[in-house]
Amino acid sequence: MFGGGGGVSAGGYGNTNEGKIIAAAFMDNYNGIVTAVNGDPSLQRSVGSLKEEAAKGGATKAGAVYREGDVLVPKIGNVRMLAQPSETAKAVATLGRGEELVVIGSEQDGYVNVQSAAATGWVKIVLLTKR
Fold first, then answer.
1. Exposed/middle/buried for 119, CB within 10 Å: 0-12, 13-18, 19+?
2. Statement to judge: residues 86 and 35 lie in one domain
């Protein structure tokens, strides 16, 4: 009983002055988004389907992207800083939660090259967050 009445009243709302204003605002917003996407090539897809785009682009990398000079902190305590970007590498330091690190190099195999107050080495990207 309530479902049928709710649908009827919502349909009639579009004929009121308030409903017309809201509909016009939605349409204006939509037109603004379309204009922005058409004017920015980086927001446009270059292939016909998502499947084609995935095949064209190869594998996607997960995780955050950091640049030289970014200040990072470990998400948890006791994070190991390693001598090389490998799980089997020797640990050069153990980082506390919130200890500041500066990105000094590139990313490699899921690790980022960083420097702390005490050491320089590699830390897993997934264990870090930007400050």
1. middle
2. no
**Residue 32 and residue 122: Cα distance in Å, rounded?**
44
pLDDT, one tens digit per residue, over 14-46 is 688 888 898 889 999 988 888 888 877 777 766
Q: Is residue 56 part of a domain?
A: no
Number of domains in the chain: 2
Q: What is the pTM of this model?
A: 0.53
Exposed / middle / buried, residue 79 (Cβ in 10 Å: 0-12, 13-18, 19+): buried
Instruction: Encode pLDDT of 69-115 as tens digits.
Output: 999 999 999 999 999 999 999 999 999 988 999 999 889 989 999 99
- Segments forming the whole domain that contains residue 76: 71-130
Using CA atoms, how far apart are residues 90 and 115, in angstroms rounded to an integer? 16
Do 38 and 87 fall within a single domain? no
